[in-house]
Each structure stands twice: as C-alpha cells, then as structure tokens.
Amino acid sequence: EVQLVESGGGLVQPGGSLRLSCVASGFTFSASTMSWARQAPGKGLEWVSNIISGGGTKYYADSVKGRFTISRDNAKNMLYLQMNSLKYEDTGVYYCVKGGNGLGSRGQGTQVTVSS
C-alpha cells in the first residue's frame, strides 16, 4: 500500500521560506518519479513540480519556477520541496504525489499559509 506523509507546512510571511518533507513507503520509491501538487482554497489541484527517479531531472510550474526547489533522498525514501520568496498565492494544501503529473496516490497534505 502506497503511503505518503507530508510535513513542514505552516504560517509564513510573504517573502519567507518553508521546507516541506514527505516520507514514502509501500512502493519502490527510488524507481518512482515523484511530484508535489497543491490545492488553493476553492480551487482545483495544481501540479507544482516533479523529479525523476534518479533526481537528475526536475520540472516546475511557471508559477513557482526560480522560487521552489524539489529534491529527493532515495536512501531515506524522502521527497522535499524548498519554497523561497513565498507569495500570498502560494497558500494551499501541499501534497506529495506518486508519479509525475500530480494525479497519482498522494498523502494527506500539509497546509501552507502565506499571510502578513
């Protein structure tokens, strides 16, 4: 059974930073492309970023490019999202997702709120 548990969310001021983490189990993490997706209040799920199994190739949504960095530690079955220069519009629930398009199995999410 795929299990994904996110952590690291919280309340941050505009311009601040957060680092999200996700621990994965129940599947071969090191062989899987992984994604982060988010859902803003009242909106649909938005793909944010993905990283291939080896970690050498990463993609970002235009809305976060240059501000967010995805990474992984295959030895620890961990996925990360470093978020810098946070904006109000980055507020939402962030999900760790198995697969590259943000639509696969996901965790319960971690809330990120950007507010002054």
Description:
With 116 residues, the chain is an all-beta fold. It is built from no helices and ten strands. The strands form two sheets. Strands 2-10-9-4-5-6 form a six-stranded mixed beta sheet, with no helix packed on it. A hairpin with a 5-residue loop joins strand 4 (34-39) and strand 5 (45-51). The chain starts with a strand and ends with a strand. The mean pLDDT is 96.
Give me the Rg, rounded.
13 Å
Main sheet overview: 6 strands, mixed
Strand adjacency order, main sheet: 2-10-9-4-5-6
| SSE run | EEEEEEEEEE
Tag the structure with descriptive keywords:
116 residues; mainly beta; 6-stranded mixed beta sheet; 4-stranded antiparallel beta sheet; 0% helix; 48% strand; globular
Helix and strand topology:
Blueprint: E1 3-7, E2 10-12, E3 18-25, E4 34-39, E5 45-51, E6 58-60, E7 68-73, E8 78-83, E9 92-98, E10 110-114
Parallel strand pairs: 2-10
Antiparallel strand pairs: 1-3, 3-8, 4-5, 4-9, 5-6, 7-8, 9-10
